[in-house]
Every structure is written in C-alpha cells, then in structure tokens.
Design brief:
Elements lengths: L5 H22 L7 H17 L23 E3 L9 E2 L2 H14 L7 E7 L2 E8 L2 E7 L5 E3 L2 H4 L18 E9 L2 H13 L8 H9 L4 H7 L2 E8 L10 H10 L9 E3 L2 H14 L7 E8 L2 H7 L9 E5 L4 E13 L5 E12 L2 E7 L3 H7 L6 E7 L2 E10 L20 E3 L6 E3 L5 H12 L11 H9 L14 H5 L6 H13 L5 H7 L7 H11 L2 H6 L2 H4 L7 H12 L1 H12 L20 E5 L7 H10 L3 E3 L8 E4 L5 H9 L3 E2 L1 H10 L11
Parallel strand pairs: 2-11, 19-20, 19-21, 21-22
Antiparallel strand pairs: 1-6, 3-9, 3-10, 4-5, 4-7, 7-8, 10-11, 12-13, 12-15, 13-14, 15-16, 17-18
The structure holds 2-(butylsulfanyl)adenosine (IVH).
Length: 679
C-alpha cells in the first residue's frame, strides 16, 4: 500500500477540524474557538489548496461559494410531493383536528410532536453517499427549482455527512430556509442604499436571496436552514417516528429547532402553542405558528392525505399582528446621516398587546409604492422587534392629502437634497442639531462605544446646551458640567464619566462604525479594519485601495474618501486621537500564497475556466482581482473577445496572460514569457 500523502492528510485533518467548528458555530450556536482562530484555519487550508489545486474537492469547507452566476434555474421534480398544511386558526379548530385524528384511529393511543412554524421557505436537500448533491425549492410542490449552488453557501446545511455508511445511498432532508431579523433589516438598508424597493418581510428576503443567480449574493445574506424531515430515496420517511427523525437529523449534523415538544394530547398542544405565541418576539427570527404532526409514521400512513394536505398534521397559526387604523399625519425625522425618514402618525391601535401609534415609511419611494396619503385607512403590522410598518392602504380617504418631502430641514432649516440613485433625501447641514443628536446616540450605542447611561434625554440636553458639538466633546465633559444637567445626581454623573472614559479602549472596528460614515456599519467597519488595520491608512486610502477590503464597492469607497476629505471630520479624528483612542488593530491575514501582493484583471472568455473560477484560484493563492485596469494592475488575464481592458493593458504596458500562462503562474509563482495572442 502506498503511504498516504502527508499533504493530503494535513488537508483532510484541517477539513475535519473546520467541519467540526462549522457545526459548533452554525448548527449548535456554541462555538469553541474565536472567529479569528477559525479564520486562521480557513486560511491555512486555502493556502494548502492553492498550492495543490488538484487536491480541492467540492465538499471542502473552502468550496461553499463556488460556480459562476447562472442564466436561470433548472426545474427539478421532487422525490415525493412537497405539500402544504391545513391551518387551525384557533383552539377550537385545533380540537376539531384532534377529534378527526381520534375518529380515524379508533381505540389507539397516539402522540403528537409540536414544532415551531418558521416563517421562511421550504427546501429539499438531497445527499448521495453522504455528499450534498441537489437542493430544490418547493415550487408547485411537484416540481421546484434547482438552487444547489446557492444552498451550498448556507452554513447550516452540511456539504458532507460523515456518519453516512459508504456506498451510494440516497436520502433527503426537508426544512425551512430563514433569515433572522437582523439580517433582514440589513438587507433592507442595503436595498435603500441601492435605491431598490424594500423586502416586505424576512421570508421574501430569504426567497430573494435563495433565488438569485449569483451564489455570492446568497452567501452574503447569511441564511439559516432548520430541518424537519428525513426521507429515503423513495421520498418516504426514513424512520418510524417523527420524533426519532428530529433526533437523527441532529445526529447527522443538521440544525433542528430544539424547541419542539412531544405532546400526549390536545391540551398539551394548546399549552405549547400559547407558550410560543407569547414568546415569539424573543426568537431571533419570525415564526408564524406551530406545526403539529402525529408522531408515528405508521399512523401517519393510515391517516393519509387529502388532495392538498396531510390528515396527520396541521399548522396552528398565530393571530396576525396586523390591525386597521388611520394615518393622521406623515412627518419626517432627521437621522445621523441627515436622511429624512417619513413616519406615519397613526390613530393609536393595540396590536398583540402593544399600542402602536407610529409606523415607519422609510423613504419617498416606499410611500410611492404603498400609495399612502394622510387620512387613508391602512393595515399596520408589528413583527418582532422590527419597527411597525404600513402593509397596505385599505381605503383611500376622500379628502386624502399627499405627503410632500420638505425642501428644508425641519430641524435646522437648511436645504434638503436627494442625490440621484438614492432613496433618501438628506439635510446637507453637517451641524444640524438633529443629526448631531443622532450621531452622538449612535456613537454611544451598545455594540458601538457602549457608553452606558448616555441616552436620548441626556444627549438632547448636552447638544441643546452647547456642551457637545461633536462626539469628541464627550471626552472633555467634566463632573461639574454633568451634575448641572437636569435629573443628574453626583453618583450617576460619576458613573457616566467612568463609562465615557472606558470607551476609549474600544477597538478600531467600533471606532470606525462610531464615526457614522454613510454606508459604513458594523460589518463594513470590521472588513475595513481587517484589511487596513489602521484608521490613518483608511483615511488616506484612495477609492481603489479601499475597494480591496471585503464587500467594499465604489459607492462605499467614495463615501469614505468624501468623509475623510472634510476638514471637520479630520479635526474630529485628531481630537479622538488626542482623547487617547487606539487607531490600530491587527490585520487579519488574507490567504497568503504565491500570488500575494499581485493584482489581476480578468477580461474575455477563457478556454476552460469561467471568470469566477479563475478569480477564485487567484484569490486562493493570495492574489487580488480588480474590476478595472490601472497602473497598479500586475497582470491582465485575457481570453477570447477581450475588449477595452486589454487595450488599456497594452497601452499601459501591463503584461497580459492567457489561461495557460495563468495556470503556470498559479503553479510556480513565475509567469512564463508573454504569449503571442490570447485565448
Ligand atoms: S411540515 C406536509 N414543519 O410551513 C408537511 N412545515 O404551511 C409540510 N414550515 O410548506 C411541512 N416550519 O414551508 C413543516 N416545522 C415545520 C415547519 C413547516 C415551517 C412551513 C413549510 C410548509 C408550510 C406549511
């Protein structure tokens, strides 16, 4: 027997380790190592794979985002129909369901399993020999769309299941793809920035992310997958009890929402439903009810199906958290970026135990989409911690009045402008007191500078009394100044001062986020810190340089350079430096390999690699791929029908490689002599 290749076993070991940590992080929500340690392992594997591309396998943890954007989706038939469920809208209907089950199973004992009804979209994922081979959306229940490339980017869907006995056994998992509220909010903020209409709910956003043609976009959305069925090759339940399926799914490494409960009778079901209806807001994602299934598969079979739904299961739907009410007025408020956000002031209405008297309308485009005017009767929805929103207009008032975006800022009277391609109108006065208050609040918020005790009431006073004109002023506040404020005792003032002091220790990503640069939130701030490790470097970087950071495109880059070009922002940075902030952090290493330090531009059609595949190989070897040719480009890789980029490369004297020369470079780190012709 040949001795095992040491590189191969090193790679195998790394992959095993990474799978273990992915499972801990994404499935069990209990990581045992830090993100940095995890990244370091990923980079180690990437570097090894880049040096040995022949050892890359599709189930490697580095290969989740692969493949190129596609033309469209291929239809695929389900192994067995994916039907929907009948609904029970109240306790009475749930009891009626139980009566029916009892009538059809006379003199038998049976039990139920109650699970949360996650508000997402269902997805069937097939495995062959333990490898993920296919993922198909529900579609019409018989035929769905093959979204395998996109599903592979969802970290709670294992690419490989080791416990599977060897051989070609086929089995299938069915479950729900969901997006948590935070990611949903972020998706909508991004849509606003791109001038696109908002997603109405997390389900639509999840569906949108799963059905895009480019898997990179799916990956960026951070979808989660909760599984609830395990089927054999024939599309039939793989085990004889549903409760056993839920345990087996977990054993195989799938994420199962552990809030399910085995219930002996309808009273226990009702208790479970009540309990979760009350607790739904505490979950990070939306649920819209409880799914109830008869546990025994044998009994399920005998209960059978109607034309559209099983008789052995039902969905208990929670009361919709929507109410009708009237729009009394629409007013704008000014945010820290100067964006004017219209808010609907409503006739107060109780929705699921909370009185709602305001709902956000986000921006003018959204008002246009809803066609809502003052006086209209509207449907308002409250969903978890998402701010209440207007769902639609139910009845236009005869004397309805349209909302008009003010031309001047309601707070400071300065001009309001709407930049082309943006959905927000903004107050252009950077010293607008409303903007200032919002920016101080953002700066001190939890997750940013964490200055406990610095809330709205206090910030209003500090700004109104001229004690704080920008966030750096916080670090010059004295105990006397603080105790002079309304409702501020000696003790609280001392505490606040200590908290302000402590915030000087916050790391670079938080400082960056705290500055309030438009489009630079928590995530982008982290990417920038990872890439540059130094605020001064970020402040002086060109737009092109900034775009080398992950997820930073032209728009964000421009926003950053514009921010740091303004003298008052430069002054702010200097004052924060003087206050003792540390502007540097460790740079998180990107893949280091033969191509580290080199920048490539790809153009035209290569003979065997797609452009995305070529980009990936370059990046895995530590190289950078840029969108346009500049003096900083190291190589242009050109294929058939290369256009203006090739011309530009030639005029700038940048070496041009064909695919073969690129492959050589990837293998050896040395380009062979420039080729005649390309493609
Ligand atoms: S069982 C035939 N279990 O709700 C069985 N569905 O209204 C059908 N859903 O299409 C599915 N959580 O998209 C099941 N724990 C759960 C669920 C669940 C959410 C969705 C699923 C289904 C719809 C039925």
């Amino acid at each position: 027997m040949p001795s095992p290749d040491p590189i191969q076993s090193q790679i195998d070991k790394l992959r095993q380790t990474l799978r273990h940590h992915e499972h801990l992080y994404y499935v069990l929500d209990s990581p045992s190592i830090t993100d940095g340690e995890y990244d370091a392992l990923v980079h180690e594997l990437q570097a090894l794979e880049a040096a040995h591309p022949d050892l890359i396998t599709p189930d490697s943890p580095t290969q989740r985002v692969g493949g190129s954007p596609r033309e469209g989706f291929v239809k695929a038939r389900h192994s067995s129909p994916m039907l929907s469920l009948d609904n029970a809208l109240n306790e009475e209907e749930l009891r009626a369901f139980d009566q029916r089950v009892q009538g059809l199973l006379p003199n038998e004992s049976y039990q139920y399993v109650a699970e949360l009804k996650l508000d997402g979209l269902s997805l069937a994922v097939q495995y062959r020999g333990g490898q993920l081979t296919r993922a198909v959306t529900r579609g019409d229940g018989q035929v769905g769309e093959d979204v395998t490339q996109n599903a592979r980017t969802i970290r709670s869907i294992p690419l490989q299941v080791v416990s599977e006995p060897p051989g070609d056994t086929v089995w299938e998992v069915r479950g729900e793809v969901v997006l948590n509220r935070r990611s949903f909010e972020r998706a909508n903020t991004e849509r606003d920035a791109e001038g696109l209409p908002r997603f109405a709910n997390p389900r639509n956003a999840a569906a949108g992310a799963l059905r895009v043609l480019d898997p990179k976009i799916t990956a960026a959305r951070q979808l989660e997958y909760f599984s609830y069925f395990l089927l054999n090759a024939e599309g039939q339940p793989a085990l004889d009890h549903h409760s056993a399926v839920l345990k087996e799914l977990q054993r195989r490494g799938f994420k199962v929402h552990t809030a399910y409960r085995e219930c002996a009778d309808v009273e226990a079901l009702i208790e479970f439903c009540r309990e979760w209806e009350a607790k739904r807001d505490a979950l990070p994602f939306e649920i819209d009810g409880v799914v109830i299934k008869v546990d025994s598969v044998d009994q399920q079979k005998r209960l059978g199906w109607t034309a559209k739904a099983p008789r052995w299961a039902i969905a208990f739907k929670f009361a919709a958290r929507q109410e009708r009410t009237r729009v009394l007025d629409i007013q704008v408020s000014v945010g820290r970026t100067g964006a004017l956000t219209p808010t609907a002031y409503l006739e107060p209405v109780g929705i699921g135990g909370v009185t709602v008297s305001r709902a956000t309308l986000h921006n003018e485009d959204e008002i246009g989409r809803l066609d809502v005017q003052i006086g209209d009767l509207v449907l308002v929805e409250r969903a978890g911690d998402v701010i209440p929103k207007v769902v639609r207009v139910l009845e236009q008032a005869p004397d309805r009045r349209p909302f008009v975006m003010p031309r001047t800022c309601p707070e400071c009277g300065e001009e309001v402008v709407r930049v082309e391609g943006e959905s927000a109108s903004r107050c252009i006065n950077t010293n607008c007191p409303a903007r200032l208050k919002e920016s101080v609040l953002h700066f001190s918020a939890r997750g940013v500078m964490d200055i406990d005790g610095l809330g709205e009431v206090l910030v209003n006073q500090l700004v109104d009394r001229g004690l704080v004109a920008n966030v750096a002023d916080l670090y010059q506040l004295t105990l006397d100044q603080l105790t002079s404020l309304d409702r501020m005792g000696q003790k609280s003032a001392e505490k606040l001062l200590a908290n302000i002091n402590d915030s000087r220790q916050q790391p670079l990503p938080r400082i960056l986020n705290g500055l309030g640069i438009p489009f630079v939130g928590e995530r982008t701030a982290q990417f920038l810190a990872d890439a540059f490790g130094d605020l001064d470097k970020i402040a002086s970087a060109s737009e092109a340089d900034l775009q080398t950071a992950e997820e930073v495109g032209p728009k964000i880059a421009q926003s950053i350079t514009q921010f740091f070009a303004k003298p008052h922002n430069q002054d702010l940075v200097e004052r924060l430096r003087a206050a003792g902030f540390k502007f540097t952090c460790e740079i998180r290493k990107k893949a280091v390999g033969l191509l580290t330090g080199l920048t490539f531009v790809l153009t035209g059609t290569l003979p065997t690699l797609t452009r995305e595949e070529a980009a990936k190989l370059i990046e895995q070897a530590g190289g950078k791929v840029a969108g346009s040719v500049s003096k900083k480009t190291s190589y242009v890789v050109a294929g058939a029908e290369a256009g203006s980029k090739l011309d530009k490369a030639t005029s700038l004297g940048i070496p041009v490689l064909n695919e073969e020369a690129l492959q050589d470079l990837l293998r050896t780190g040395v380009p062979r002599a420039a080729e005649e012709g390309n493609g």
